[in-house]
From TrEMBL, chains A, B:
Gene3D superfamilies: 3.30.1330.30, 3.40.1280.10. It comes from the Bacteria. Residues 2-78 form the RNA 2-O ribose methyltransferase substrate binding domain. It holds the Pfam family SpoU_sub_bind. It comes from Tepiditoga spiralis. Belongs to the class IV-like SAM-binding methyltransferase superfamily. RNA methyltransferase TrmH family. This is 23S rRNA (Guanosine(2251)-2'-O)-methyltransferase RlmB. One of its GO terms (cellular component) is cytosol. GO terms for molecular function: RNA binding; RNA methyltransferase activity.
Length: 242, 242
């Protein structure tokens, strides 16, 4: 699959994620940022070729490639639940229950990395996957964070609970997010853009977390809600560790 | 201009915003929600006609109209700064300095209404305007909130400061958002998706507000950042008024 964009390439290189090939623009007028990237890829001995901008556009079906496309192999490298065994602090985890919009997924990843989340879990079915768009919208931050794909979310939640992780589903009429103590092992479940968290997933959770709202608004954009809750968790953890 | 979607029509009706005409689908298989909306529009004596789904799609260039398109007249009804004179509490205001993405603008509007913001201010030039997409992404919440368009943001900031409103630009290396007292009259300036808040706009502000981040992330999606800061303000105000 292809990833694209300059910051994305930088993050892939930083993460030492495996690269099959890089496609750069063959345009003569390139700036110093792009020159540096070409030099670095060259020095690292990574296979790369130069193509017309039109060819680049065809590869990723967008004009937003910034002269850089990265072939990262057949599929994105998903992690499994065992990665949590190496976490040496109280884990902070996000479950996305059937999110459908790649922009929301990408924005959640960016917020998750910035707030110290240890992993994002998505279900195998009826969920957006990691695509070129998701990677771009995450600003390449996805390469800093394990993305775990599971068959059965309810079973996964039970496993998390066994690891002493408290699982809260985001919905209306629950505990205000700032009244939860999220310095303990915490997992936040965010639901689909239209339907919210599924009933049986909610049933398996330890509780419901809510964002109190004015003016009869009943929901926010899912990436916004997720960011508000995660940064409350980060704040609590920063203050606790001072 | 056209707005579309069922929740959008509901919010327009609730807000008693002026409607020129409503276009409904002429499909025979319509559900009870749509039937209710047609009945309500009819009872209110609002001009409406029925069209093929293809015609509806042509009007708004999207398939997401849900069988409902609303003609709200030539231009969106922007407010001016005087609307702030009728605010009877410490104002909470958002300035969007040259935001370019309609999805971000729509998501900010939704968060702003839900967090009790009194007005959003945008500059006349180099800014996304209110479009059909913005209205849809706001889930129709835009009709609950004055959107003010101004010629010169720096001058507007000076006027806000004269009204005892504290103006903070969002950027790196400023005061953590949760250390600001936002129970006073507060205005948060959010910058363009790529470039952030312009230098001269920052210079006119009272200070810089930041979201501390882990893992060398230097920014979040602008609607997420804005949501995090606004809901901190709402929390402070809710706690203060208890």
């Amino acid at each position: 699959m292809y990833a694209y964009g300059r910051n994305v390439l930088k993050e892939i290189l930083n993460a030492k994620y495996s690269i099959k090939k890089v496609y750069f623009t063959n345009s003569k007028n390139i700036d110093s940022e792009l020159k540096k990237l070409i030099k670095k890829v060259s020095e690292l001995g990574i296979s790369h070729i130069f193509l017309d901008n039109e060819k680049l556009e065809e590869l990723v079906e967008t004009t937003k490639h910034q002269g850089v496309i990265i072939d990262i192999g057949r599929e994105f490298n998903y992690a499994d639940l065992n990665v949590l065994n190496s976490v040496d602090h109280e884990p902070l985890i996000v479950i996305l229950d059937q999110i459908s919009d790649p922009h929301n997924f990408g924005a959640v990843i960016r917020s998750a990395v910035a707030s110290g989340v240890d992993a994002i879990i998505i279900p195998k079915n009826n969920s957006v996957e990691v695509t070129s768009t998701v990677i771009k919208v995450s600003a390449g931050q996805i390469f800093k964070l394990p993305i775990i794909k599971v068959t059965n979310l309810s079973r996964t939640i039970d496993e998390l609970k066994k690891k002493n992780i408290w699982v809260y589903s985001a919905d209306m009429k629950g505990t205000p997010y700032y009244e939860l103590d999220m310095t303990y092992g915490t997992c936040i479940v965010m639901g689909n853009e239209g339907k919210g968290v599924r009933e049986n997933v909610k049933k398996h959770s330890d509780g419901i977390v809510s964002i109190p709202m004015n003016n009869n608004v009943d929901s926010l954009n899912v990436s916004v809600s997720c960011g508000i809750i995660l940064f409350e968790a980060k704040k609590q953890r920063d203050i606790r560790s001072k």
